[in-house]
């Protein structure tokens, strides 16, 4: 579900939507080292939906390999990338340095970082800041508009109008869609129509809990953990999730719902990101701007401490109990959080609280899935702390949120491509969308090429209104009866689809060379059998 990057080609333009880094297990991360399947120097421009590394993290690599065109994003997204991308580069340089020490000991050749801090800083010169809702014209053939996605500060839905010959086709990229009624951030913008929709499916098979208040659940965890003398350790992304937590802790502290304990943000990146949030209050929701007007800035918690230096971070390892420590990364696969987990996972008094999605193959996912022992920095650590997972803090729309957003379209989409989700999430969301809207969906494979022929919809004034009214008034179709021959064809199509999803899931897993060799052998057998059938018939 990570590594968001779409190469779009029209008659006149060649551009990217996002250029993200793969995150998760070893096999996925190896994709970041591979060459792009296109020449970066021949890309006209980049449209960036938001600053999260799985959407922006390979932009410095794009620059390193020759890209010098503009990168269009909202102002908050550009400001956040200015701190996120160099931080990502620093992490990569440190990881490569550690790997090369091991390779030196084994007599192997050194490897290079995907990009450097210098690359990350240099690519920022290419950013062009745009406003929400303002059309950007790329000649007469292409128009782009950024709309608020409600996911993180500056996140955007992209509307793209492409005209070829006499036809105009409208594409919509959802980016990552946010929840409704979240603190700080506005709700996702409804879109009126589209020919093709590229829809994220992160939570396509899950619902956020509605029976409990996430703030109350966090309060209960804090109270009982402090009561037994432990620390509350919260892996959180430096952007958005950390600021959400500050907002909620502010409320708890001011209302005295939790005891007075140190609250430490141990992430230089989160410190910088929080300052960026404070400078973009005008981009936030009405509740937040009203609190600021009243002099109650929700990003300023009484007693909140920021840990910036390495020595300050190391000093936190001596805290045996009575502190709330928030640190990156949110999936616990890099950064200072791994040190805090190493010092607290084995302690029954402490609690580890996950407040965001945990991708397959990450340390966070292993812990949430119930691992009894994990390896951190080459050392096995027993998992004896209380493990908590609060999904109510998620910055992603859940299954209902995604479906309702699709239902808000007045006309179309004619087809939906389900992207940015694990196979089971995409499959379930596609099934539900088909069942409730009758809109066809498709789950593309990594590196798959798809042609998008134009839809001949009428889009102006009265015609659009009449089309929307006709769509709403249209009766539900009668159940279709199919013959046994058609039934077999549908069954075969479903079998092919399930096999494709299973193969993709297996390829993305961390498997040893023997299992990959066996998988290739089985695939070859299938190819030979299909060749036999095609020749026979």
Brief synopsis:
The protein is α/β, with parallel strands linked by helices. Helix content is 38%, strand content 16%.
Give the % helix.
25-40%
Residue stretches low in confidence (pLDDT < 50, at least 5 long) are 457-464, 470-486
Globally, the shape reads: globular
Give the radius of gyration: 24 Å
The helix/strand class is alpha/beta
Whole-number average pLDDT?
A: 87
Strand percentage lies at 15-25%
Count of helical regions: 17
Strand order of the largest sheet: 6-7-8-9-10-19-20
Give the termini distance in whole angstroms: 38 Å
Largest sheet: 7 strands, mixed
Task: Tell me the number of strands.
Answer: 20
What features would you describe in this structure?
With 537 residues, the chain is of the alpha/beta class. The protein has helices at 26-30, 53-56, 59-64, 75-105, 117-123, 214-227, 241-254, 268-279, 286-293, 310-315, 337-344, 363-368, 399-407, 423-437, 461-473, 484-507, 513-536, and strands spanning 6-9, 14-17, 45-47, 71-74, 127-130, 136-137, 142-148, 156-164, 167-173, 196-200, 232-235, 263-266, 304-307, 324-327, 351-354, 373-376, 379-382, 386-389, 415-419, 441-442. The protein has a seven-stranded mixed beta sheet, covered by helices on one side. Strands 13-12-14-11-15-18 form a six-stranded parallel beta sheet, with helices on both faces. It is globular.
List the helices and strands and how they pair.
Blueprint: E1 6-9, E2 14-17, H1 26-30, E3 45-47, H2 53-56, H3 59-64, E4 71-74, H4 75-105, H5 117-123, E5 127-130, E6 136-137, E7 142-148, E8 156-164, E9 167-173, E10 196-200, H6 214-227, E11 232-235, H7 241-254, E12 263-266, H8 268-279, H9 286-293, E13 304-307, H10 310-315, E14 324-327, H11 337-344, E15 351-354, H12 363-368, E16 373-376, E17 379-382, E18 386-389, H13 399-407, E19 415-419, H14 423-437, E20 441-442, H15 461-473, H16 484-507, H17 513-536
Parallel strand pairs: 2-3, 3-4, 4-5, 9-10, 10-19, 11-14, 11-15, 12-13, 12-14, 15-18, 19-20
Antiparallel strand pairs: 1-2, 6-7, 7-8, 8-9, 16-17
Helix pairs in contact: 4-5, 4-8, 13-14
């Amino acid at each position: 579900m990570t590594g968001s990057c779409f190469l779009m080609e029209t008659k006149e333009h060649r551009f990217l939507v996002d250029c993200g880094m793969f995150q998760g297990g070893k096999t996925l991360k190896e994709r970041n080292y591979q060459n792009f399947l296109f020449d970066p120097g021949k890309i006209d421009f980049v449209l960036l939906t938001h600053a999260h590394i799985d959407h922006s993290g390979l932009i410095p690599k794009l620059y390193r390999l020759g890209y010098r065109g503009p990168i269009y994003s909202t102002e908050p997204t550009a400001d956040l990338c200015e701190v996120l991308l160099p931080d990502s580069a620093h992490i990569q340089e440190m990881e490569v340095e550690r790997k090369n020490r091991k390779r030196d000991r084994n007599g192997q050749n050194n490897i290079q970082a995907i990009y450097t801090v210098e690359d990350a800083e240099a690519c920022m010169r290419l950013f062009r800041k745009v406003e929400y809702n303002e059309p950007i014209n790329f000649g007469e053939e292409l128009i782009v508009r950024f709309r608020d996605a409600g996911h993180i500060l500056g996140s955007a839905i992209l509307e793209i109008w492409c005209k070829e010959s006499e036809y105009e086709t409208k594409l919509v990229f959802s980016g990552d869609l946010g929840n409704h009624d979240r603190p700080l951030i506005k709700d996702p913008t409804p879109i009126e129509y589209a020919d093709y929709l590229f829809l994220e499916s992160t939570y396509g098979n899950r619902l956020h809990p509605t029976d409990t208040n996430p703030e109350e659940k966090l309060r209960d965890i804090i109270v009982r953990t402090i009561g037994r003398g432990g620390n509350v350790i919260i892996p959180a992304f430096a952007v958005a999730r950390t600021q959400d937590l500050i907002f909620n802790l502010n409320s708890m502290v001011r209302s005295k719902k939790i005891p007075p304990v140190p609250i430490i943000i141990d992430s230089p990146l989160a410190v910088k990101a929080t300052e960026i949030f404070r400078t973009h209050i005008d981009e936030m929701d009405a509740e937040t701007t009203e609190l600021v007007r009243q002099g109650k800035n929700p990003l300023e918690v009484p007693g909140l401490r920021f840990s910036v230096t390495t020595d300050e971070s190391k000093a936190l390892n001596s805290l045996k109990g009575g502190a709330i420590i928030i640190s990156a990364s949110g999936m616990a696969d890099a950064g200072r959080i791994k040190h805090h987990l190493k010092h607290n996972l084995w302690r029954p008094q402490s609690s580890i609280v996950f407040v965001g999605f945990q991708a397959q193959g990450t340390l966070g996912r292993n812990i949430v899935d119930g691992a009894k022992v994990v390896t951190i920095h080459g050392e096995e650590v027993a998992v004896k702390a209380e493990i908590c997972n609060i999904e109510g803090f998620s910055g992603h729309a859940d299954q209902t949120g995604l479906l309702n957003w699709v239902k808000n379209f007045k006309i179309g989409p004619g087809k939906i491509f389900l992207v940015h989700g694990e196979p089971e999430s995409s499959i379930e969301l596609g099934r539900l969308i088909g069942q409730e809207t009758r809109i066809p969906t498709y789950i593309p494979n990594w590196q798959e090429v798809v042609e998008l022929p134009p839809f001949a919809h009428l889009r102006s004034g009265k015609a659009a209104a009449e089309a929307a009214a006709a769509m709403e008034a249209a009766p539900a179709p009668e159940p279709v009866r199919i013959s046994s021959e058609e039934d077999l064809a549908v069954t075969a199509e479903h079998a092919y689809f399930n096999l494709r999803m299973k193969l993709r899931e297996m390829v993305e897993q961390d498997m040893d060379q023997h299992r990959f060799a066996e998988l290739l052998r089985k695939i070859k057998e299938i190819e030979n059998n299909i060749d036999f059938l095609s020749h026979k018939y």
